[in-house]
């Protein structure tokens, strides 16, 4: 989101932060906003009407109250009113904002239950597991399988084994991908979960697993560099000959031996 949409989202996020001190309220907001996202994706005319800056603000907020009052909680209705009353660069941004708020509300519910670390780790690990299981990816992404069947599959695999918030986010990523693949959805959700408490996600690729001391030292070093809390997601990759690569957002810190060899070969060829 850019321009007016970024300003609108910031206002809605501030409103969310004041509404999610209670775990159950936060979880309800997350679930209800995810349902609204599905509706906005299915009804482009509604999406355009709510994001139409040429229409009076009172008309847009009135439409929200007409559609959702009594159907969602007061806290969710308040957030939807904020979204409808804002200015958006393009209509899709209002649905994207609602999705991000839903993830953040779900993260807040996990935070209240002291499970935020677990959720971050479980989103990452499930993404890695699913990437290595083509049949699972097919079952979760194929339109031939109804949503209830996908929910049942995920419940059978994960219920009682991951935090409830992680299961909700994984399920949402699978049943409403919104044009993205499952791994990309999970990565986006993990980024938002980390952002809820202002942490960055560092994806670290190494040839062999890091021990606890190495993880602590790397976390401390990256925290000092970025002046933010760091969530390490470590991937053991046999193609990494030595050293490691660290990716934070769009920034890649590549210290692997394989990258150095590739650079040396390029120099030889020049």
Architecture blueprint of SSEs:
Layout: H1 4-17, H2 23-42, H3 44-50, H4 57-68, H5 74-85, H6 92-112, H7 116-131, H8 134-141, H9 147-158, H10 164-175, H11 182-196, E1 199-206, H12 212-226, E2 229-236, E3 244-248, E4 251-254, H13 257-269
Parallel strand pairs: 1-2
Antiparallel strand pairs: 1-3, 3-4
Helix pairs in contact: 1-5, 1-6, 2-6, 4-5, 6-10, 6-11, 7-10, 7-11, 9-10, 10-11
Short description:
This protein is an alpha+beta fold.
Q: Which structural class do the helices and strands define? A: alpha+beta
Helix proportion of residues, in percent? Answer: 55-70%
Which regions have little confidence, pLDDT < 50, spanning 5+ residues? none
Strand order of the largest sheet: 2-1-3-4
* Share in β-strands: 5-15%
H-E order: HHHHHHHHHHHEHEEEH
Number of strands: 4
Q: What's the Cα radius of gyration?
A: 21 Å
Apparent shape? globular
Number of helices: 13
Report the end-to-end length measured between terminal Cα atoms. 41 Å
Main sheet?
4 strands, mixed
Question: From the structure provided, what is the oligomeric state, counting identical versus distinct chains?
Answer: single chain
Average pLDDT rating: 88
């Amino acid at each position: 989101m850019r321009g007016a949409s970024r300003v609108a989202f910031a206002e809605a996020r501030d409103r969310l932060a004041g509404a999610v001190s209670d775990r159950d309220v936060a979880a309800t907001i997350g679930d209800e906003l995810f349902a609204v996202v599905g509706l906005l994706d299915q009804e482009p005319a509604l999406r355009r009407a709510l994001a139409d800056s040429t229409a009076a603000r009172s008309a847009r907020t009135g439409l929200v109250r007409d559609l959702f009052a009594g159907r969602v909680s007061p806290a969710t209705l308040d957030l939807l009113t904020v979204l409808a009353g804002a200015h958006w660069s393009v209509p899709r941004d209002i649905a994207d904002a609602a999705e991000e708020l839903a993830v953040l509300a779900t993260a807040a519910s996990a935070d209240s239950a002291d499970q935020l670390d677990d959720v971050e780790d479980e989103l990452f690990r499930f993404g890695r597991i699913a990437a290595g299981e083509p049949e699972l990816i097919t079952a979760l992404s194929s339109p031939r399988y109804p949503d209830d069947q996908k929910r049942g599959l995920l419940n059978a695999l994960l219920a009682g084994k991951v935090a409830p918030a992680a299961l909700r986010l994984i399920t949402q990523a699978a049943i409403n991908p919104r044009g993205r693949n499952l791994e990309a959805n999970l990565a986006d959700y993990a980024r938002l979960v980390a952002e809820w408490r202002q942490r960055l996600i560092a994806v670290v690729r190494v040839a062999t697993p890091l021990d606890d001391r190495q993880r602590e030292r790397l976390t401390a070093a990256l925290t000092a560099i970025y002046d933010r809390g760091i969530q390490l997601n470590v991937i053991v990759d046999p193609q990494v000959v030595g050293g490691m690569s660290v990716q934070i957002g769009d920034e890649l810190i590549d210290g692997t031996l394989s990258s150095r060899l590739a650079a040396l070969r390029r120099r030889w060829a020049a």
